[in-house]
Amino acid sequence: MADINQPILCGTDFSETSVEAANIAAAIARRLGTRLVLVHVGAIRGLGRVDPVLIQSAMAEQQAGLDRETARLRAQQVEVEAQLRSGSPFEQLVTAAVEANARSIILGAVGHGLGHRLLIGSVAERTAEASPVPTVIVRPGGNLLTWLKGEHTVKVLLGYDFSPASEAALQWIGRLRQNDASCEINVVHLYWPAEAAKRFNYQETIRFGDNPEELQEPLRREIQERISQIVPVDSVRLTIQPVSGSPEGSLYEISHEQKVDLVVVGTHQRPGLGRFRFGSVSRAVVQHSKTSVVVVPPPDPERAN
């Protein structure tokens, strides 16, 4: 049973995808025995410079929409706390999550043009990059809600790279499995053969696409040791393969081949230009994945229980 003081937080803009995300958030909150904090961030900035009456009208309309969605979710036998906020959507969602001591943020993925994403990023991307708690980004038409209803097993892919963020993502998978064992877990480790060859003193020439067992085996042992501390090793499928192109591209291919329902990745949450200098696998996965994504931040000692 979850701590009632750690709710599920869901951001909504009342779109079809947000409704699907809210249904998933409500189902998770109900299963965990906790409450749902439903947040709508109103787009009212600047209206006051045109006519103060407009801002009151906009707020009233948004409050009415939030009230309707709150009533709909409460009919699903879940406790709902509604919040209407204004300002930057991702900043307000993160602030609300911190204030509520939320265990996770759930959002519907809303598409934008490529230029818009490159300039300012989507709300989901920016929330995931700033949130101190895991962010679940729901793609429309997925199988998460039917899984929560017990209708089938969910297939989960975890991208693992030994970083603190991926260790936190592995911990998240462990909690998922603890709360519901009806999930298939595939841990995927993508490696650079030249780096692994140097580390393990492998002397043979490595050609493009090679995946020698002499490199796979020590990596497998190390990863299985980490996995065994969280979940039984025999319950996890482990895929180890060399990077061909970009890591996120390989993750797309594997997730498509295995028809997964959920991709889980860690995020380093690099500030500012660091994201562009070093790249961000998690951002690329959120932008382009066709399936729902969970982005897990590095552990925060101040939030540790």
Q: In words, what does this structure look like?
A:
It is a single chain. By secondary structure, the chain is of the alpha/beta class. 46% of the residues lie in helices and 19% in strands. The protein contains 13 helices and 10 strands. The chain has helices at 16-32, 47-50, 52-74, 89-100, 114-120, 123-130, 144-148, 164-179, 193-199, 213-228, 247-258, 274-278, 281-288, and strands at 8-11, 36-42, 80-86, 104-108, 135-138, 154-159, 183-191, 236-242, 262-266, 292-296. Strands 3-2-1-4-5-10-9-6-7-8 form a 10-stranded mixed sheet, sandwiched between helices. Helix 8 links the parallel strand 6 (154-159) and strand 7 (183-191). The longest helix is centred in the N-terminal third of the chain and has 23 residues, at 52-74. The chain starts with 7 loop residues before the first strand and ends in a 9-residue tail after the last strand. The relative contact order is 0.13. The model is unreliable at 111-120 and 272-279 (pLDDT under 50).
Largest beta-sheet details: 10 strands, mixed
Mean of pLDDT: 85
Distance between the first and last residues' Cα? 15 Å
Relative helix content: 40-55%
Strand arrangement within the widest β-sheet reads 3-2-1-4-5-10-9-6-7-8
Oligomer: single chain
Counted beta strands: 10
> What's the order of the H and E elements?
EHEHHEHEHHEHEHEHHEHEHHE
* Class inferred from helices and paired strands: alpha/beta
In DSSP terms, counting alpha (H) and pi (I) runs of 4 or more, how many helices? Answer: 13
Uncertain ranges: 111-120, 272-279
Q: Per DSSP, what share of the residues sits in E-state strands of 2 or more residues? A: 15-25%
* Global geometry: elongated
